[in-house]
């Protein structure tokens, strides 16, 4: 317990798994917690102290699963091992924590999702900015970024860290609310840039950080990286030698996408609650035709960080075009990639000394695919014939020298000798663990081969002993067996007990027989077992040296993994483009956006192909703000999102679902859907909507694309229309961005008369009898009604409710006509006095209630009983009159019924 408490004192923030023989034990508070979370039996033990100590343990064999469950719940687990052989230890065996597993620092496949990065982020607030260092220890990736405070959320939403490190004493509530991320506070001095400078230089063996691309402007990010490294070293006392050189992300390279935009466009996760891992309804789900886990992870990164420089995007588009245009080349490339495993994570495991024999072989085999991948790549580029027939030169699709394919090919590395070394040294199917079966192939090491011959010779000799002893004793059922406790033995059933020779020594009695040994048998046993022990030791030695040798090549392997991942993504994008009929978008530095016959990539997949109705959308300087009205269910949200998705896909380097698309580069994309609730963060729905809207108004530029869906809906109609109206005016006059505003406030249609660059569009429906036919076609003009009641009927509202709703609607519409007369027009304030505010004849629909609290629905006229009650003053009736009144009212109700 003394040893336990000493170690525990150094690992206060973790649950300590204390190795004791075949178990990891937890004690005291850890035991209480572990038993609760893991459902373990809590026992207690008097370990020589004055009182009993609570205790709960898990078997060593099952430890991974228990660690996984704890870490998934956001706990840290410190693994404390026996670090000397208990048989040789004097006194208490030495123990040390060899690793601390946390959500952000996990290697085990059980804890990782192969389709996404597992980032640990250290964040350091700087004046007006936020610096972030993000590491994925499973892939060895390290990224540094500094972004203006306004883009902090977007950056973190993209990285989606599993764990966040913060300097102590800062504001933490914002972080605590981050979905599922564990917040770890560290001392503020650990974020010091000067200290980090030395630390990083040591980690990468460089004299100056300039060589790593880290400049003076990265001070804060450097500080964050220092804290990150320090924390990682604490968790992994063995160090993190596999951490690749940092990638410094510079502003302007990628488009910041805030969390709401990412969610509303359903980029990588579906909006449907409870189906968070369902990628079927997401852009990632549609585009993901990658063959490798590295490809899937990179595709996700590309989706979440569309590019903003035309040349960068065209390099990707050139590559997709070339791959899409060569069906055979593409198929060959994808087939070659098919056998490639997660080189990135396997290489990291090798460098961290964690790869198992099977994993190291998988890495070797994956490297073996490199020449095939390279061959396919060269074919697509057009420098080599695949042997499947001469390619007809096609000028239009030969990638430009700047294409990503050409860049990747120019830096190609087959890793031939590394692959040869691994595949030569390891058997074809090595075991999961060393020692279970042979790991090192025959012919690799003479010492090992000799030992194996000795062991196998011993085994043969033992088989011969069985034959000889049967002969000598005449007992045909005599057999030589083996178990771990007694080693080799001769087993004779009771029926032949009399014939057992004198030189047999009895070792074990069974119900129907006895087990014996002979000096001969023991001699061979020693040879066999001794050899087996030495074989294991030698195999371990050879394997570890091979693994270390691979590990030293980590930087090179990471480059190879990067190239494979990128080829995989480019080939996947080409494959989707071909299958789904996407076209290459034209990107320009101009303003205009023109999408001809655009489709929603996800919605169209959910229906038969011809069923989805394509639509054209054009936004230019002179027609930059579209007010999109139309009935419920007509397809407004679909069009809105499809425009966002087409632009995003184009800027990530993908082809797009349209027959033609010209896209003036967008610097930011905002998508807001009104009344999206954020109950998790405990904010009012409307408050969230307004906070988001204000973020757009403050950050959008003329180059942005703003997509608003029913903003203003979370409040009363008057307030809502007014806000929607003035937000539109502001975007039109002051921001000048491309905007689409989908709304049920038909009042907004009037904006087109006031503002020169506003256009009205509606989604057409046709009325057939009292039914509504949804045409899903975008046409110029505004809608005058919402057909909400028809949609209610489709949704199964009871017939009487529908009938009554129609009555109320007729009543309201009648009222509106008369009320319009009585309501004066509101003069606009200040310089905008030339403009009208929302015309009152539209608003008058709701005029029967006082404007300050305009309800959405006007109540039907009160019942006579209510009128009678209202007319009664309880202070001026006698008890008798009250009773009479009560009886009368009751009778009236009965009469009405
Ligand atoms: N272009 C289209 N072609 C075929 N079906 C479509 C199209 N657009 C939308 N739909 C179908 O109509 C459904 C409703 O579309 P959407 O949610 O975009 O309507 P909406 O006008 O935004 O409705 P509301 O105003 O009620 O929110 C979609 O789920 C889809 O199934």
TrEMBL record:
Pfam families: MutS_I, MutS_II, MutS_III, MutS_IV, MutS_V. GO terms for biological process: mismatch repair. ATP binds at residues 630-637. GO terms for cellular component: cytosol. Keywords: ATP-binding, DNA damage, DNA repair, DNA-binding, Nucleotide-binding. One of its GO terms (molecular function) is damaged DNA binding. It comes from the Bacteria. Belongs to the DNA mismatch repair MutS family. NCBIfam families: mutS1 (TIGR01070), PRK05399.1 (NF003810). This is DNA mismatch repair protein MutS. The lineage of its organism: Bacteria, Pseudomonadati, Gemmatimonadota, Gemmatimonadia, Gemmatimonadales.
């Amino acid at each position: 317990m003394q040893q336990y408490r000493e170690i525990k004192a150094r690992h206060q923030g973790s649950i300590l798994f204390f190795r004791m023989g075949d178990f990891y034990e937890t004690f005291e508070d850890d035991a209480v917690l572990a038993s609760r979370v893991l459902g373990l039996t809590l026992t207690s033990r008097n370990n020589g102290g004055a009182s009993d100590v609570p205790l709960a343990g898990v078997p060593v064999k099952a430890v991974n699963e228990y660690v996984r469950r704890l870490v998934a719940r956001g706990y840290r687990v410190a693994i404390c091992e026996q670090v000397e052989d208990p048989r040789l230890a004097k006194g208490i065996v030495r123990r040390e924590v060899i690793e601390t597993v946390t959500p952000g620092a996990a290697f085990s496949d059980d804890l990782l999702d192969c389709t996404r990065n597992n980032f640990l982020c250290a964040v350091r607030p700087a004046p007006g900015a936020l610096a972030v260092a993000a590491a994925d220890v499973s892939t060895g990736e390290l990224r540094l970024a500094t972004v203006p405070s306004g883009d902090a959320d977007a950056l973190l939403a993209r990285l989606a860290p599993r764990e966040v490190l913060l300097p102590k004493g800062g504001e933490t509530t914002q972080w605590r609310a981050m979905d599922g991320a564990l917040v770890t506070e560290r001392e503020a001095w650990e974020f010091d840039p000067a200290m980090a400078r030395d630390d990083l230089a040591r980690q990468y063996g460089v004299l100056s950080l300039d060589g790593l691309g880290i400049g003076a402007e990265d001070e804060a990010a450097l500080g964050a990286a220092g804290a990150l490294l320090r924390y990682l070293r604490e968790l992994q006392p063995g160090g993190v030698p596999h951490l690749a050189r940092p990638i410094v992300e510079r502003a302007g390279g990628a488009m910041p996408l805030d969390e709401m935009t990412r969610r509303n466009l359903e980029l990588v996760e579906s909006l449907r609650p409870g189906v968070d891992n369902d990628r079927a309804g997401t852009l990632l789900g549609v585009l993901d035709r990658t063959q490798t886990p590295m490809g899937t992870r990179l595709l996700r990164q590309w989706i979440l960080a569309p590019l903003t420089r035309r040349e960068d995007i065209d390099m990707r588009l050139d590559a997709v075009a070339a791959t899409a245009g060569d069906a055979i080349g593409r198929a060959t490339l994808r087939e070659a990639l098919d056998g490639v495993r997660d080189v990135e994570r396997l290489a990291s495991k090798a460098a961290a000394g964690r790869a198992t024999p099977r994993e190291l072989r998988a890495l070797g085999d994956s490297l073996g695919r490199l020449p095939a991948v390279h061959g396919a790549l060269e074919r697509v580029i057009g420098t080599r014939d695949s042997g499947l027939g001469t390619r007809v030169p096609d000028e239009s699709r030969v990638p430009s020298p700047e294409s990503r394919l050409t860049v990747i090919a120019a830096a190609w590395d087959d890793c031939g000798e590394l692959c040869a070394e691994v595949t030569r040294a390891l058997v074809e199917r090595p075991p999961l663990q060393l020692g279970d079966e042979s790991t090192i192939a025959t012919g690799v090491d003479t010492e090992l081969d000799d030992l194996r011959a000795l062991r196998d010779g011993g085994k043969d000799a033992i088989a011969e002993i069985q034959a000889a002893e049967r002969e000598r004793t005449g007992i045909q059922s005599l057999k030589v067996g083996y178990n771990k406790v007694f080693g080799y033995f001769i087993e004779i059933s009771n029926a032949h007990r009399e014939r057992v020779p004198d030189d047999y020594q009895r070792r074990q009695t069974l119900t129907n027989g006895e087990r014996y040994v002979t000096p001969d048998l023991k001699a061979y046993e020693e040879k066999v077992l001794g050899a087996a022990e030495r074989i294991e030791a030698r195999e371990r030695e050879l394997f570890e040296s091979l693994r270390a040798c691979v590990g030293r090549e980590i930087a090179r392997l990471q480059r190879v993994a990067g190239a494979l991942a990128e080829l995989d993504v480019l080939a996947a994008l080409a494959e989707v483009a071909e299958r789904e009929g996407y076209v290459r978008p034209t990107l320009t530095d101009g303003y205009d956006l023109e999408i001809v016959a655009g489709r929603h990539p996800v919605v169209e997949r959910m229906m038969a192909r011809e069923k989805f109705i394509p639509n054209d959308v054009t936004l230019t300087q002179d027609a930059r703000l579209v007010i999109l009205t139309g009935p419920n269910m007509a397809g407004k949200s679909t069009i809105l999102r499809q425009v966002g998705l087409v632009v995003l896909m184009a800027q990530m380097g993908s082809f797009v679902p349209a027959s033609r698309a010209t896209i003036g580069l967008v610097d930011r994309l905002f998508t807001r859907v009104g009344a999206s609730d954020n109950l998790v963060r405990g904010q009012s729905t409307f408050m969230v909507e307004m906070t988001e809207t204000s973020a757009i108004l403050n950050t959008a530029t003329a180059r942005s694309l703003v997509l608003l869906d029913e903003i203003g809906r979370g409040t009363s109609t008057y307030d809502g229309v007014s806000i929607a109206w003035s937000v539109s005016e502001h975007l039109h006059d002051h921001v000048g961005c491309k905007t689409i505003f989908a709304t049920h406030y038909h009042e907004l249609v009037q904006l087109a008369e006031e503002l020169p660059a506003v256009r009205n569009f509606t989604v057409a429906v046709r009325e057939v009898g009292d039914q509504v036919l949804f045409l899903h076609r975008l046409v110029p003009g505004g809608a005058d009604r919402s057909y909400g009641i028809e949609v209610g009927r489709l949704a199964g509202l009871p017939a009487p409710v529908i009938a009554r709703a129609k009555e109320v609607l007729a009543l309201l519409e009648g009222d509106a006509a008369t009320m319009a007369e009585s309501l004066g027009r509101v003069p606009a304030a200040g310089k905008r006095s030339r403009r009208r505010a929302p015309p009152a004849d539209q608003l008058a629909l709701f005029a029967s209630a006082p404007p300050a609290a305009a309800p959405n629905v006007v109540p039907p006229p009160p019942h006579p009983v209510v009128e009678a009650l209202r007319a009664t003053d309880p202070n001026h009736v006698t008890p008798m009159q009250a009773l009479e009144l009560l009886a009368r009212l009751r009778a009236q109700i009965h009469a009405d019924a």
